[in-house]
User: Fold this.
Amino acid sequence: MTVKKIGLITTLNSNIGDDFIREGICRILDEIFKNKSIEFVSVNKHKPYTAYPAWHPIHLMGFTGRLHFGRQFVRRTADSLFSAMGFSRFDSCDLIVQCGAPVFWPNCHLNEWAKPLWKDIIGRLHERIPVFNLAAGSCYPWERQPSKIDTPEDEKYLRAILGYCRLTTVRDRLSHDLCATLSHDVPLIPCSALLVGRGRKAPVTQSGYILINYMAGGGHYAWNQEIDNRAWEKTVKSLIARLSKRHKLAFLCHDEQEFCLTKKLAPELPVFFPKSSREYLQCVSGAMFAVCNRMHASVAMAGLGIPSIAICTDTRLLMVSQIGLATHYVKDVTADGIEDEAENGLKSLRSEQDRLLALQSRTWERYTSAVKEALCLL
Assistant:
């Protein structure tokens, strides 16, 4: 049996949402190469030099911190010299895939993996090894959504990585439109996290939990949009008080900070804090609805047929609206409005589950077809 080695550019041991994205992509690749033995080679893009084996001389750059003079010059010279040697962990791969992440955001060219992964490794390998960028997304302030890439350095970086990739798919309309301004017409397909629970579905019941996924201020970043964290906290407290009169509520947490915040909001409510994708799917399977600040909480649950309302501060909301769920900018919501929307959603749970699971099936077909076509397997 021929072994297929596939390199994954991803995020590891940080956010369970990244696990959903990567595992959805791995499920697609497992299906496409089901007659082969697959080895996945995962590299954490936030630690880009782990793309090289431990013996590689590029790791000697760590010793430049001990120099009293010329530290930056020596580091740049060593980086240039040793990266040109090759021998990265991706050099022996048959395919390299960046697993869904924000790709388009302000000053994206400054990210820590742009040079070591994209320029030095992918730039060297892309003519020999197929490179995919699947489920790419945008992350711009909600109040300042661009119509084009307006930073020359960002444009240069984005043109380069789009040029390296044999296949790019995007998960939101803004990313699609920005690619078009760069002369790239790419498929717009829902985020691969929708596929992580494929083959499972939550039971349709009016007695399940309404899950609350809460982040201070409604999202990762405020983006200088004058978001009032206290106002959002007050809104969620009011929403919990209202909904708990009629429904079972529980918190759903993605990290320790969210877990600690639950004690401040409503210490009497049960808390789910799963540590793996499998545990996550088990925890949420008893839910009937959710209100989420984490976009991948909404997307992963949608893959089980569980609808939600997503509330955030930036254009990651567009990833959730792409699958037809309710989305709101945090400054636009009230407890009254969320309560009414949740109650209306609970009236059509079965039809909404059917819609979401049908969308999941179409999403699976679109990904598998796009990957097969790009690899000339059709």
In short: The chain has two domains: 3-52+88-195+361-374, 209-347.
